[in-house]
Amino acid sequence: MQQYILRRLLMMPLLLLGVVTVAFFLSHVTKGDPLSSVVSERQMNNKVVVEAARKRWGLDRSLPDQYRIYLGNLVTGDLGTSFRTKRGVGEDIADRLPATLELVVAAMIVGTGCGIGLGVLAAHKRNEAADHGARFFALIGSSIPVFWSGLILLYLFSVQLGWLPGAGRLDARTAAPPFVTGMFTVDALIAGDLQTFLQALGHLILPAFVLGWAVMGIISRLVRASMLDVLNQDYVLTARAKGAAELRVLLHHALRNALIPTLTIIGYSFAYLITGAVLTEAIFSWPGIGSYAVESARALDYPAIVGVTIIGALAFLLANLVTDVAYALANPKIKLG
Amino acid sequence: MSQQPLLEIAGLKVTFGRGAASADAVAGVDLTVAPGEVLGIVGESGSGKSVTMLAAMGLTPKSARIGGSVRFRGQELVGMPQKGLRAIRGARMAMIFQDPLTSLNPVLTIGAQVAEALRLHNPGLSRKAAMARAVELLALVSIPEPERRVRQYPHEFSGGMRQRAMIAMAVANSPDLLIADEPTTALDVTVQAQIMEVLKELRERLGIGLVLITHDLGVVAGAADRIAVMYGGRVVEQGKVDDVFYRSRHPYTRGLLASIPKLDVRQERLQPIEGAPPSLTSRPSGCPFHPRCPLAEARCSSEEPLLRQVGAVETRCHFAERLDDPEGGIVVPFDKAPARKAVGP
C-alpha cells in the first residue's frame, strides 16, 4: 500500500508537466494582448513604454524560450509573477487557496453528510413520502443554479431574517486571525479566539450549504440507487436473521457496501469544486481560487492561468489517489500494488 | 412426543400484493417441529417452502401480509413487535441460506460477522471475548486454522467454508431451532455431504431442532426424522421419513420419488412430472395439483382435499385410498398417464 502511494506520488510531476505544457501553449494561442493589463490604456500607443513592458515581462522572447524559462523557474518552485497583481503567483495562490479549501471542505461535509443521509433515508422508505421528499429536495439542489439559490438564501437568511451574516469571510471590522493555515475557522481555533471562530463559521454556513446542496443531489441519488441494490442482497437478510436492528442493518451492513461506488463521485466533486466554485465565491464575495482564475483569464495573465491550472490538476491527481486508496480500504477484494 | 413442540405453525398464510393482483405464496400451512427433531420440507421452487420459514422468522418483506399463527416454544410470533422478534432471531432461532457466496457480507471479516451474532445477543460480551469465541465456533464447524481464518474476508473462503462459517454464525448462541434453507444446493456434491455431516454433528452435540428446506429428496432421506411435502403453498403430505418414502398416499410425492435417478434400477429416461407448478397468481381451483395429476377426476378441480390421516401418513388427496401401500418399493401412478406414452422413445 505505502509503496503504491509512493509510486503514484512520484508519477505526479510527470503528469503535471503534461498539464503545464498544454496549459502554457493553450493560453498563449488565445488572441489578445496581455500587455493591455500591464500597461495602462493611455500608454498603449506609446511604443517605448510598450516595448519596455514587453521586455520586462519576457514577452519579446520566442514562445519556446518563454516555455523553457517558465519550466526552469517552476522547478525551483517559482510560479512566476502575475501581470495583473504584480505579485508572485505562488503568493497569490497561497492567499486564495485556503479560502477555497475552507469553503469546499465545509461544502463537502454538508454535501456528503446530507447526501448520504438522504440517500439512505430514501432507500429505506422507498416510494413513501420521505423518499419523495428527500429526492425532491436533492433534485432542487442539483438543478437550481448556484447563483440563484445563493442570492435567494442570502436575501432570506441574511437580509430578511438576519439569522446569518452576509457575504465575505468575516464581518468588515473583524481582523483575520493570525495566519497558520489560512482557513479562518481553523486559525481562530488555533489562536483560541472563540468569538472570531463563531463569526467565521457563521459566514461559512450559507456558501457551504449552497455549494454542498448541489453536490448533495448527485450523492444522494447514487447512494439511494446503490442502497436499494445492496438491500436486496442475501447478506442483508443474514444480518436481519442474526437479530440485528434495522438501523444497524442499514448503516453497518448495507451502507458500507453501498458507499463503495459513491467514493468516486465524492473524490471527483471535491477536486472539481477547488477550481469550480467560482459562482459561489462571486456571490458571497469569497476571495477564493475560483474567482482568481476567472480574473486571471480575463486579463490574459499567463502565469496566473497556468498556476491555477497546476493547482486544479494537482487537486484532481490527489483526489484520484485518495479515492483509489479509500476504495482499497473500503473493499477488501481490492489489493493495491 | 408429549413435550411442547418447539415450533408450531398453524394456518399460516403469506400474501403478496393487494386486491386482484394479490397472491398467496403460502396458503394455509400447518407444521410442527419437536425439540431436537429434524423436519425436512420438500417441494419445487415456488411451492412456498422458503417463504413459510421466512415468515416464521418474521423476515418476509414489508409488502407481505401474514395470517395464521406461528408459535415458538408456546410464544406467538405473528404480530409480535420487531423488538421482541429480534431478541429471538439469531438467539433462539437461527437461519442459514442457500447461497453462501452471497450470504456473507463482503466488506466484513468472517470473525467480525460471527462475533456480531454473539454480541447482538450478549451486550456485555467484549469485542475480544467475542472474537475468541468466534475462533472456537469456526473450529466447531471444522474450519482449519480458525485463528487465521477469523481475520479473513468472505472472498478468501471457498463455498463450502463459507457455508460452514454461516453455520458457525447461526449456532453461535446455541439456538433451539436452526432453519437451513437449501443449505447444500449451491455447493459441489462432495462438499454437500460434508455440510450435511456438520449439521448432523451439531444437532447431536447441541440438541438443536432442525428444519431442512430442500428440493432434493436425497438430502432429507439421510438426515430428516419427518418430511413435509409442499405444493402450491400447502403441505400436501407429511409423515415419518420412511413412511413418506415407502408408504406415500399422494400422487405428487410419488411423482417426486419417481423422478429421482436410481443407481440400482436400469432406466432409459428419468420420469419427470409433466407440466409446471402453478404460478402464484393463477392457482388452479380445487386441488392445486389436479392439472398435472394422472388420477384427477372432476371432483379434484372443484373441491380442495383436506389433510387427513391415511395409513401411515397425513395426506391431502381425495383418492389417497387408491394408492395402496406399494409392495417392495415405490409404485408410480404415472405409467397410466397418456402424456407419457406420447413422449416415449
Number of strands of chain A: 0
Per CATH, which architecture of the largest domain in chain B? 3-Layer(aba) Sandwich
Structural class by sheet pairing and helices of chain A: mainly alpha
Query: Helix coverage percent of residues of chain B?
Result: 25-40%
Number of domains of chain B: 2
The average pLDDT value of chain B, as a whole number, equals 86
Q: Can you tell me the residue ranges of chain A where pLDDT is under 50 for at least 5 consecutive residues? A: none
Tell me the helix content of chain A.
over 70%
Beta fraction of chain A: under 5%
Number of domains of chain A: 2
Order of helices and strands of chain B: EEEHEEHEHHHHHEHEHEEHHHEEH
| C-alpha-based Rg of chain A, rounded | 24 Å
CATH H-tier superfamily of the largest domain in chain B: P-loop containing nucleotide triphosphate hydrolases
Derived from helix and strand composition plus strand pairing, the structural class of chain B reads: alpha/beta
Uncertain spans of chain B = 327-345
Count of extended strands of chain B = 12
| Largest sheet properties of chain A | none
Domain ABC transmembrane type-1 (chain A): 97-323
GO biological process, one term (chain A): transmembrane transport
Transmembrane segments (chain A): 103-124, 136-157, 204-223, 258-284, 304-330
Membrane topology (chain A): Multi-pass membrane protein
